[in-house]
Structures are given as C-alpha cells and as structure tokens.
Specification:
heterodimer, A: mainly beta, five-stranded antiparallel β-sheet, globular, B: mainly beta, seven-stranded mixed β-sheet, four-stranded antiparallel β-sheet, 11 strands, about 50% strand
C-alpha cells in the first residue's frame, strides 16, 4: 500500500526558513496536501498542490513537488513561534482518501 | 460555514462500555470521513461516506466499530465493548466532490478507555 514518509523533528530559530520534506509512493494522485496540527487540536488544511505543478506559493508557504523522485516539500519563510506544530504530508491513494505520514514536529526557538 | 463539528470533544469511558461520537460536516459537503489518530502517529483512515452510502471501510474498522450516515448529513461512529487500545482521537472530515475534493477536518473527539 501507499507509504508516506517524513522526518520526525525539525528545530529552527525564529525568523529563519523551515523546510519540511516528505516522500510518497503512490504517484497517481491529483493533489498532494499539507496539514498543520497544534497540540490537542484537529488538522488544519495549510495548502495543497495539483500534481501537474512543480511549485505553489501562498504567502509565507512554498510547496515544491518533484514527481520523478516522489518528493514533496513545504517551506515556511520567516518562521514564527506560532508556526510550532506538527505538519503532515498527505497523499490520496487507491480507495483511501488520504494517507498521512507520521508528521514532522516543528519547534521554533525564539 | 461553521466548519466540521464533532461531539463530544472528550470522552472517558470504562472498558467494555459503548461510546458514540457524532460528526456534523460542512454544509452541503456530500463526502464524510472518519480517521483515528493515536499519540505520535498520523491519522489512519477508518471509513468514508458519499451521501448516505458507506463506500469504503478500512481493515482497522473491526466488528466493534460501526459508522452510519442515515440521511446523508451528520454521521455517528459507535464503538462497542471498548478496549484500552481504542483510546485515540477520532477525527471526522468532509469534502465536496464539486470543489476539488479538498478535505477539511474537525477538531476531533478524544477517547480515553480506562
């Protein structure tokens, strides 16, 4: 079945850029997604990218998609303490609407 | 648009009891999903509905779990004879096939089985 992999932890200083990486195995998806989860809360849709795009920019967020390598990344510019959360990459696969990675815990140091 | 609403937000129950969670999707979203998330893991798919039809069920959904969406609007997820391993956050989400099928999640229902 589909496998979505992410590194588990990332620590950055406030004001720096954060880059969260994800690899996936099912390349048939139309969209790929990034969600954010704050402690004790549900998942907030951050952004998504259509599979025929290489890049999508949305304010401080930049998503890069490398379909050949099945690699997705999320860059957060000027990272703030409020960006501290767990970030999930998600990919639809077969009959499963979304398959999630284990999430990357982003810690922002003031 | 009030977003996806789940109730209750927290539930503590004794092992062996039955629990039921309710989900109200975003208005006019015809697809509704249930996921389960345990500590340190990503959400895992349980089941989804298109209107009132349950189209897909994960092998994670054992016989003790049942989900319904009788009128194609709100949904319930019932867990019978709860076990400690059922302790998790149960997330509901919804989408519309007419808006790119972007999936929006609720705040989740935390279940603790003691």
């Amino acid at each position: 079945g589909e496998d979505v992999e992410q590194s588990l932890f990332l620590s950055v200083r406030e004001g720096d850029s954060s880059v969260i990486n994800c690899t996936y195995t099912d390349s048939s998806s139309t969209y790929l997604y990034w969600y954010k989860q704050e402690p004790g809360a549900g998942l907030q849709l951050l952004t998504y990218i259509f599979s025929n795009m290489d890049m999508k920019q949305d304010q401080r967020l930049t998503v890069l998609l490398n379909k050949k390598d099945k690699h997705l990344s999320l860059r957060i510019a000027d990272t703030q303490t409020g960006d501290s959360a767990i970030y999930f990459c998600a990919d639809p696969s077969g009959n499963t609407p979304l398959v999630f990675g284990k999430g990357t815990r982003l810690s922002v140091i003031a | 648009d009030t977003g996806v609403s789940q109730d209750p937000r927290h539930k503590i129950t004794k092992r062996g009891q039955n629990v039921t969670f309710r989900c109200d999707p975003i208005s006019e979203h015809n697809r509704l999903y249930w996921y389960r998330q345990t500590l340190g893991q990503g959400p895992e798919f349980l089941t989804y509905f298109q209107n009132e039809a349950q189209l897909e069920k994960s092998r994670l959904l054992s016989d003790r779990f049942s989900a319904e969406r009788p009128k194609g609007s709100f949904s319930t997820l019932e867990i019978q004879r709860t076990e400690q391993g059922d302790s998790a956050m149960y997330l509901c989400a919804s989408s519309s096939e007419h808006s790119g099928n972007t999936i929006y999640f609720g705040e989740g229902s935390w279940l603790t089985v003691v």
